[in-house]
Structures are given as C-alpha cells and as structure tokens.
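Why do we bother with a discrete structure alphabet at all? Because it lets us treat a fold like text: something you can write down, compare, and reason about line by line. To make this less abstract, here is a complete entry for ClpC protein. Read it the way you would read a sentence in a foreign language you are learning: slowly, and without expecting to understand everything at once.
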Amino acid sequence: MGSSLSSFQQRKSQQEGSILFIDEAHTLIGAGATGSSPQNAADILKPALARGQLQCIAATTMEEYFQYFSRDAALERRFEVVEVEEPTAEETVVVLEGLRHHYERYHGVQFRDDALSSAASWSERYLPERKLPDKAIDVMDRSAVLAKGRGEGDDSKVSVTVADVAAALEETVGLRPGSVSEVEARSILDLEEALRARVRGQRAAVRLVAAAVARARVQLQELRRPIASLLLYGPPGVPGFAQCYGEVLIDEADKAPPEFLGLLLEVMEEASLTLSGADGVGRADFRHTVVILTSNDPAGPSSLPRALADRLDGYACMRYLS
C-alpha cells in the first residue's frame, strides 16, 4: 500500500483536482511496515495531509474507527469525521434503481418496480442485524439468480417479481419457503385473531399489540423508533403474553434502577443502544422490535418516571381471567 500511495502522490502533483479515496481506511494503520522500514502507509500520508498537498476521503466503520484509526492521534486530527447515517428503506429504493440496469444486464433479467421496493422494505424488516443498502442489494442480486433459474432456458429475459424477492429472503434468513409471502399477506384482522388464540381474556392488550404491528406494516410508525413501546399493567398473578419475534420484555419497569432507565430511554427514543467494550463502540438495533413494559401498579403509566411514560405509544390494563 505504501508504494501505491507514493505513486499517487507523484501523479497528484501533475494533475490538479485529484481526490484520493481510501476504503477500509483502518487498514492504513501498520500497512506497509517491515522490519527494515517501520514507516507504514499512515506515516506516508501524514506529511502531505498536513501541508494541504493531498485531498483525501477515507471510509471505515464506526467500530473500526475507534478500534484502530483513532489510536493514531496524528492521523486522526488531519481528518474531519463525518458520520454517514444508514439510509431509510425509501432512500434505498433510489439506490436500487441506480443499480437496476447493471444487474439486469449481468443476470439477463428485468426487475419489476414492486420487486425493488420489496427488496428494500423486507430486507430492513427481516435482516435487522445488517445495514441498508448493502443487505437490500444482496437480496436484489439473489432474487435475480432465482428468477433466472426458473427461466425457460432461452435468451428471453425473465422478470424478477415480488415472489422472487420473498424466496431470496427466505433462503437468506433460513425461513420455510413461502413464509415471507404468507406473513406479508396477513391482514390486521388475521394477526389479531392469531394473538387471541394464544392470549386468552386480554382483548385490550391483544388489540393494542396488533394495531402497533399493523402501523409498522404500512410504515406509519416513526422510522427511527421501535415498532412500539407499550405498557401492560395489572395486579400480580395476571397472565401476560410474549411474542415469538422481535420483542423486548421489561418486567416491573416501574422498579427499574435509574442507571437502567437511561438505557431503556435510549432504546425507546432512538431504537438503538450504544454498547462499549474492548472492541470499541457498537450499536444494537431495535427498530424492528416491540418494547413491552409490565407493572403491577394499578396506577399504570402514572407509576412510571415521566420521561418513560411520555415515550409510550400505548398501554392496557391486564384483567384477571374469569
């Protein structure tokens, strides 16, 4: 890498307006150093950056920035940090549109518009551990392979449909074939009935949870918050319920210690949790999660700290079963 940087600097002196872009910039630290020459790639860059002779954009992840890049103070102060936010599903569709013709030529297919929008929205929903637009691009690529595989074997182009996108997601996540299409086809009435079959005698709570999930389905919830933050309260011994997917359950939230409340507020307000450890700073994503708080206090939301109660999307009183 060191020789490549030196070569670029020589060409840069002969060509105005050049900008050096370095991906995986944390690899600069230590790159090119040998026993006979301890100077690494970062050391080669520093003088040119300090004198303003070089324009450079470096890209890395936040975790790798703190783990590697920020440890070289001399290199760090020569850059201005710009945090690039993950695009929304709607913004990702624009990215996929820009890549559309490339993948159509490469795979010999044609993407339907609804297939691209599904690739963005469904990858956001079913692959929460990964980031947009990367995960949507992977789903787009895989769905094109599946569509081509069901073609007639001639030179005619096949269309990539929503069904192909669903199949690609099922294959990626490890879901039963057809399960994504089934879930997305369910109406709010189907969901409410399914919950009632598992949760007896708690009609208000079932309706509250079903409505929250329905809002998320049609993307009416705030994009940077959890699907919903709900309080279920009632006397001790009243049965509650748990969902099988995407739930954070905080039992007796009214008794939570102050240090825990700060973490919970971050989750409810920003749908993320900042985690610090030996490997640097990371974030847990809660955008596809229903946060359920429970309490045995009959005062319901009034029993919670004001900051917590203000962030609730709804609450319901759990009743004794007759």
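What the structure line is telling us, in plain words: The first helix runs from residue 2 to 12. Residues 2 and 41 are 5 Å apart (CA to CA).
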